[in-house]
Amino acid sequence: MARVSEDEVLGALKRVGDPARSGNVVDLGMITGLVVRDGNVMFSIEIEAARAPEMESLRLACEQVVADLPGALSVTAVLTAEAPPAPAAPAPADAASAPAAPPKQAPQFGRHGSPGAQKMELPGINAVVAVASGKGGVGKSTVTVNLAIALHRLGLKVGILDADIYGPSMPRMLGITGQPRSDGDKLETMQGHGIACMSIGFLVDPDQPTIWRGPMVMGALEQLFGDVKWGELDLLLVDMPPGTGDAQLTMAQKVPLKGAIIVSTPQDIALIDARKGLNMFRQTDVPVMGMIENMSYFHCPSCGERAEIFGHGGARATAKELNCDFLGEIPLHISLRETSDAGIPIVASSPDSVEAQAFMTIAEEVKQRL
Ligand SMILES: Nc1ncnc2c1ncn2[C@@H]1O[C@H](COP(=O)(O)OP(=O)(O)O)[C@@H](O)[C@H]1O
Ligand SMILES: [Mg+2]
């Protein structure tokens, strides 16, 4: 079945009106951060915080019209409010009539975080580092898995948390099948190539699309961190969901991140996205460890020449310009895809190859910074 498109999603949302104003949610500019990916749809609905309690039904209506589209596998709509409510009317002078129940804190992914956003505690884990990118498809998961194995080869105890709940790739890339065991209280991690891993992909049947609602997304992520027996780890790499929306921002605020690594390709457009990713972490005071350029150049296996098909070096220049470290570059090579698809990433399957060595070099840089 054809997957749903952005235009179809916006078309459907135009049928939903804001009850308090004339016009539909799209034309009123209330829909932001729309992401449509392989049939999974996510967007925010901008509201005034004061109207939050009445907006839950609008949120549900928006989710419903999109869920009804053929080709929509999952829909997540979240309410966001830019600023605290401006009092609509003067506060009642009569103390007896106040305070009524405070308005429910609806924006689960509030742009500036919920006031009490507390960082989770993850005892036993020495450092949590996010691997992020502004957009999908730049090779974030490929880099995460190979970097993890490279660091393991350097003697570190490494885990991967696959936080990409819409498109988990770690079970496939690490070649892990089956379901994690539970000790009644916590889930055991799954192991592949010496890496401890947890992914929503182990828990959700890939053929049974899950409908994620806003709060469920954060709930699922918190559980993947907190309800898992990670054991002692030198480093937990987090394969972040793509984008720089509220879910990512909330993650950056809630998880005690030691740092972030930004993956980018040399194309300009991806670099613009990389800048957004970088700024997001800076906003939340998470130090950016550095940038990695993926699909940087093509290493021709027959002649040994380097061909710089996308105009290589963009990430290095951007990193310099943005005052952030450049950790290294990974060539574009079919073997990277084939080995990841086969569940034996290149650093595990051909550790001596040029491609694997590129990851080893970056791993040394990362290790130093831990
Ligand atoms: N350096 C590379 N050379 C060749 N193929 C790559 C490389 N990096 C990633 N790929 C391929 O590109 C696709 C997207 O990579 P993936 O790691 O899933 O990206 P993301 O996690 O950012 O969405 C995958 O098919 C992957 O195998
Ligand atoms: Mg990925």
Question: What can you tell me about this protein's structure?
Answer:
By secondary structure, this protein is an alpha/beta fold. The protein has two domains: 6-83, 2-Layer Sandwich (GMP Synthetase, Chain A, domain 3); 128-369, Rossmann fold, CATH 3.40.50.300. 32% of the residues lie in helices and 19% in strands. The chain has twelve helices and 15 strands. The chain has helices at residues 6-13, 52-67, 140-153, 170-173, 200-203, 214-226, 246-254, 268-283, 314-321, 334-341, 346-349, 354-369, and strands at residues 31-37, 40-47, 74-81, 128-132, 158-162, 187-188, 190-192, 195-199, 228-229, 235-239, 259-264, 288-293, 298-299, 306-307, 326-329. The strands form four sheets. An eight-stranded mixed beta sheet has the order 7-8-5-10-4-11-12-15, with helices on both faces. The chain has a three-stranded mixed beta sheet with strand order 1-2-3. It has a two-stranded parallel ribbon with strand order 6-9. Helix 3 (140-153) crosses helix 12 (354-369). The longest helix is centred in the N-terminal third of the chain and has 16 residues, at 52-67. It is globular and about 65 Å long. It starts with 5 loop residues before the first helix and ends with a helix. Mean pLDDT is 81; it is low at 83-116. Adenosine-5'-diphosphate binds next to helix 3 and helix 10.
